[in-house]
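[job 0412] stage=complex_fold ligand=iron/sulfur cluster status=START
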Amino acid sequence: MTTKEAQSRNIRSLHRDELEDWLVTAGHPRYRCDQLLGWLYNRRVSSWDAMGNLPKALREAVSQEFEIGLPELVRQQGSLDTTKKYLWRLSDGALIESVLIPANPGQLGGASDRKTLCVSTQVGCAYGCKFCASGLDGWKRNLSPDEIVGQIVAAENQIHADLAEDEARKGGEGEELRRRIDNLVFMGMGEPLANYPRLIKALSILNAEWGAGIGARRITISTSGLVPQIKQLADEPPQFRLAISLHGSTDEVRDKIMPVNKRYPLAELTEACEYFIEKRGKMITLEYILIAGVNDDLELTESLGALALRLRAKVNLIPYNKVDGLEWQRPSEAKQELFYRALFRQGVTVTLRREKGHDIDAACGQLRLKAEKSTRANEALS
Ligand code: SAH
Ligand code: SF4
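[job 0412] stage=complex_fold status=DONE, emitting structure tokens
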């Protein structure tokens, strides 16, 4: 672990108590803490100068101790009413991405009111699932809490800027600063549970009323199956939701596409899920990407159905999103439908996702990979 990872100096890595302690120790009044947090999470500023109601001496002191920067937007794709993808540059130049998804597609052509942000937790991924763009270049580093939190804050700012621009075009008054993101899913780049302490710290900030104010029930953590951390998560006080990237209902299939299964085979994963469900009394989700000729054999619906019923879990079927440079394909729509129906007939709660954002590389790691490839191509040319 690098020193930067161990100790981020960015102020958005701090819990309220830590900030308050620092302020009081440095001789500032306690009430300044809430003022500062208001600037960080309600006004979402990225400069100390913007904090008009704070004395200059405090702004100077705090700016000497902490950084305040947010991930910088490099590129965005998609429109506000549909899936939208943000590519961010971090302070060391690393690229990560977040995806904004309207939770209820807009009715009658109107904009959706609920928004979900899909968040990254690492640069790259060490788990090397064969179908996934995030792991293609290996693992680079963990994100610090502020880099995780910063994706939400920066995305809120971006949504706000887009809405304000839209309003201005229509001759309106401009948008208020209210929060726009209702749900978070940790399904971006990286394995969230492999970055456990920083993830939990970020979650405590995102979950808090003084922070991003997003309820734990509206936060889903997705994992490829890290058994010890699933159990640890079950023991955390907030009621975060859990999604398992299953993608195979037998060890044979899972071993072929997800190296993590060799370490934590299905029996152990199932037992960890049972522990989570027992502790939480909450339904978990089993994510199942449909990949042609790999895991879409209809016979597999028997073991998948049995597992889902045993765990009383919901199954999300996701047609595979093509990744440049990988051979994998999604099955035909007819095949997807048959797979879905075979599970439905067993009494499984199952959904078949019409992939949003297929056209804008919305699957995890894809936009970053393209951006890095084009940067490398540019470097090679210059
Ligand atoms: N590492 C965590 C979270 C990030 S991946 C995990 O694996 O759960 C988020 C989800 O996207 C996972 O379910 C992953 O399997 C899926 N995914 C990866 N590549 C995909 C692709 N090309 N098409 C569709 N889903 C994909
Ligand atoms: Fe990593 Fe998840 Fe992609 Fe597997 S699916 S390589 S664990 S990001």
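Confidence is low (pLDDT under 50) at residues 1-6, 105-110, 357-362, 375-382.
[job 0412] exit 0
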